Amino acid sequence: MDRFVSILASGITSGAIYALIALGIVLLQNATGVINFAQGDLLTLGAYIGSFWVVSMGFGQLPMYVVVLAALFAVGVLMERVGYAPLRNRSPLTIVISTFALGLALRAVILLWQGSDPKNLPSPAGENTLNVAGAAVPYQSLITIVVTVIVGGLLFLAFQRSALGRQVRALAADREAALLQGVRVKRLSPVVFGLSAALAGLAGVLVAPIVSITPTLGFGLLLSAFAAVILGGERLGGVAFAAMLVAMAQALLGAYLSPGFIDAYPFLILVVVLALRPQGLVRMVSGVRF
Question: Which pick of 45, 70, 92, 186 has the fewest CB atoms within 10 Å?
């Protein structure tokens, strides 16, 4: 029983990380139509900034979260100015390649700044664990899950109640109609790029105490998050649900079937689900009016 609880806790923790990455991807895709392939490298950058702030500079843990969110928001806005705004009228493929190139550039900057040696970021809760049904669950896992639930709830409220949220939802439901109604994507896109990057940075500082920080940290996580995005559709709740499903299935299959294929399980799950339900787990937004 304790092993099952431990595996379940690990799966939910991974699901929380996938959800933060996937929410950033869907948020940006709904508002601008862009799939950001740099999302994983933004996560990596957030983890490195957190490690630099706490380990190298010796500053506090709590201010670190504010610094990382602010820095990644600024990086996201910069990416919009450099990699999206000049290409706004070009084909979607051109913009996707642009985000991919920006991700590689971020990785190169990280390598020049911090080198290739693994870094670490201590958890604000230390090595302490909570006993749950005989399993020792790290407090960092609980922090990750709680923070993700709070951020997800705040995002949901913001996109239900705020003007920004209504505009993003209008663009997601019917882009052409939203543009004709006066939704200004040019003003919206820097903010959404910044929010999306900040979500990736938050995921970075939450996962960094659990794993070693390397320049490719975000790449594998991004691939699993993509599986959640495809399964979850364009709704934030659907994507969060799919992220949890993918991560928990990945953890259980890795523990009880074969750990050698743990990186492949998200894609096997994706293939199986799409074969049974081609529309994904959640109905797409298209055709829905808010």
Answer: 186
108: alpha, beta or left, given left = phi > 0 and alpha = psi -120 to 50?
A: alpha
Spatial CA neighbour of 222 closest among 38, 10, 13, 82: 38
pLDDT class for 173, splitting at 50, 70, 90?
low
**pLDDT for residue 144 is more than 90:** yes
Q: Tell which phi-psi region holds residue 277, choosing left (phi > 0), alpha (psi between -120 and 50) or beta.
A: beta
pTM: 0.88
E strand residue ranges, the chain:
129-132, 135-138
pLDDT of 214-224, one tens digit each? Answer: 999 988 888 88
Domain ranges of the chain: 1-220
C-alpha 113 chain-centroid distance: 23
If one counts every other C-beta atom within 10 angstroms of the C-beta of residue 100, the result is 16
Residue found under tokens 């009880």? 256
Least confident stretch, 113-127, 195-209, 228-242, 263-277? 263-277
Within a 10 A sphere around the Cβ of 96, how many other Cβ atoms? Answer: 14
Distances (CA, A) of 150 to 16, 157, 200: 11, 11, 15
Phi, psi of 135 (to 5 degrees): -100, 140
CA dist 227 → 49, 155, 269, 281 (Å): 27, 21, 8, 11
The pLDDT-based confidence of 286 (bands split at 50, 70, 90) is: very low
Question: What's the rounded mean pLDDT across residues 172-180?
Answer: 70
DSSP states of 57-108? S---HHHHHHHHHHHHHHHHHHHIIIIIGGGTTS-HHHHHHHHHHHHHHHHH
